[in-house]
């Protein structure tokens, strides 16, 4: 498998070329999400609410898996920067072992405790609850393969080889696009059909990852597992995993608050979040690029290069976020009508987009800063920032829904996102830039 040296070359060019495949993967995933939501949306608001509700618990699994994915990605990138191939293999082995355990345990939890999870949301709609659990149960095997596909993508990002990861993710998205209508309508599986198509696509992606990477991503029995490295990966990944799990739990509590306003409100948030993900395509690309770029350069001790890369990514990311914010304010209902025709849902989703438009720039700052913090092996920083302000969303929402109704929930999300972005940049300026990255650069 091709390895790209991110410690050399013009910084903005290297980061852009690294970010483009990630953006491409995000664009493909977004395209799939649009088509998926369009197919499911034809089943009605209840179907959208079912997937939206169960997705909250799927996201917990994705959050827990970052324990292995983030830590493994950091250590692989550092080892590549240090030119230590043996360590690279050992960290990949350790990451695979940890990831497999997480996937198996969480999958079983979804199957046996899924009904209780859905019941906790108090959806007060038997049809939505039934479909939500069915969707959740099928996600148990999906997540096993999805966890590994995410880890493989992260490892390839550490190698600087995002092009191959993009191609493999593209195969998965295209398969999903063709399988969705077949499973949902032709096979008459309804909401479960959306999950079945995702399962098939993830299995095929997993196989392609294994056979197309020259054995890099295979578990090497002759090397075995160094449990000290497993512990090291888990220690690095824990802050981000804990932050993401907490973030998802907070979203579940917010969903309980939103559910008071009916299934239209649940569906509206699901659609609003999907549209908002357009803003995160570019910014997310730079987040991943900065993490991989920073990881290799940190391993090579090229600190000035890290600072330059962060600044370049920030300028591009914030500019894009401002453009997307303008679109959310001016064309919100036109975007929403792509997914659904129910006017009540459209009005609620439009209010969501108009409010979160004001936090887009700050979210961009937070995401790109998180890439840098992760790359230097300091995931506790973004995790701490996110934990504090994400928890703040619940009391903030409870206070604001009294004068503003459902918009109070959206305002709480906006305010805390603004605070996270400001705090992340302050930490970079006063702690990372001035202290942690003050060592003299050893080369360009």
From TrEMBL:
The chain crosses the membrane at residues 12-35, 55-77, 98-120, 132-152, 164-187, 193-211, 245-266, 278-300, 312-331, 407-430. It comes from the Bacteria. It is found in: Cell membrane. It is a multi-pass membrane protein. GO terms for molecular function: antiporter activity; xenobiotic transmembrane transporter activity. GO terms for cellular component: plasma membrane. The keyword Ion transport applies. GO terms for biological process: monoatomic ion transport. Multidrug efflux pump. NCBIfam families: matE. Belongs to the multi antimicrobial extrusion (MATE) (TC 2.A.66.1) family. This is Probable multidrug resistance protein NorM.
């Amino acid at each position: 498998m091709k390895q790209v040296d991110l410690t050399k070359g013009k910084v903005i060019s290297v980061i852009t070329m690294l970010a483009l495949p990630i953006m491409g993967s995000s664009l493909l995933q977004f395209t799939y999400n649009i088509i998926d939501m369009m197919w499911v949306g034809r089943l009605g608001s209840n179907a959208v609410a079912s997937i939206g509700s169960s997705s909250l618990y799927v996201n917990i699994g994705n959050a827990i898996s970052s324990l292995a994915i983030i830590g493994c990605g950091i250590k692989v990138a550092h080892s590549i920067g240090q030119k230590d191939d043996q360590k690279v293999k050992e960290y990949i082995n350790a990451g695979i072992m940890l990831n497999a355990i997480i996937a198996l345990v969480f999958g079983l939890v979804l199957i046996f405790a899924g009904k209780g999870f859905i019941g906790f949301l108090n959806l007060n709609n038997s049809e939505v609850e039934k479909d939500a659990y069915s969707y959740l149960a099928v996600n148990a095997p999906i997540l096993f393969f999805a966890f590994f596909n995410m880890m493989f993508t992260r490892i390839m990002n550490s190698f600087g080889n995002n092009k191959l990861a993009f191609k493999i993710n593209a195969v998965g998205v295209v398969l999903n696009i063709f399988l969705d209508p077949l499973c949902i309508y032709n096979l008459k599986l309804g909401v479960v059909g959306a999950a079945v198509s995702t399962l098939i696509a993830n299995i095929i992606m997993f196989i392609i990852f294994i056979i197309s990477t020259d054995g890099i991503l295979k578990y090497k029995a002759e090397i075995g597992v160094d449990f000290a490295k497993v512990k090291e990966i888990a220690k690095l990944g824990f802050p981000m995993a804990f932050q993401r799990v907490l973030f998802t739990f907070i979203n579940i509590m917010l969903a309980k608050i939103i559910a008071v306003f009916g299934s239209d409100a649940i569906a509206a948030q699901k659609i609003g979040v999907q549209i908002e993900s357009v803003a995160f395509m570019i910014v997310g690309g730079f987040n991943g690029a900065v993490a991989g770029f920073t990881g290799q350069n940190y391993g090579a001790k090229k600190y000035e290069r890290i600072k330059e890369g962060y600044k370049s990514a920030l300028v591009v990311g914030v500019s894009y976020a401002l453009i997307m914010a303008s679109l959310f304010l001016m064309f919100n209902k036109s975007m929403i009508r792509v997914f659904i025709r129910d006017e009540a849902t459209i009005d609620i989703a439009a209010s969501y987009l108009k409010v979160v438009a004001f936090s887009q720039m700050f979210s961009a700052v937070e995401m790109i800063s998180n890439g840098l913090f992760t790359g230097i092996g300091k995931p506790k920083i973004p995790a701490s920032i996110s934990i504090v302000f994400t928890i703040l969303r619940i009391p903030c929402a409870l206070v604001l829904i009294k004068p503003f109704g459902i918009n109070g929930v959206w305002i709480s999300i906006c305010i805390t996102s603004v605070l996270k972005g400001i705090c992340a940049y302050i930490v970079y300026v006063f702690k990372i830039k001035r202290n942690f990255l003050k060592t003299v650069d050893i080369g360009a």
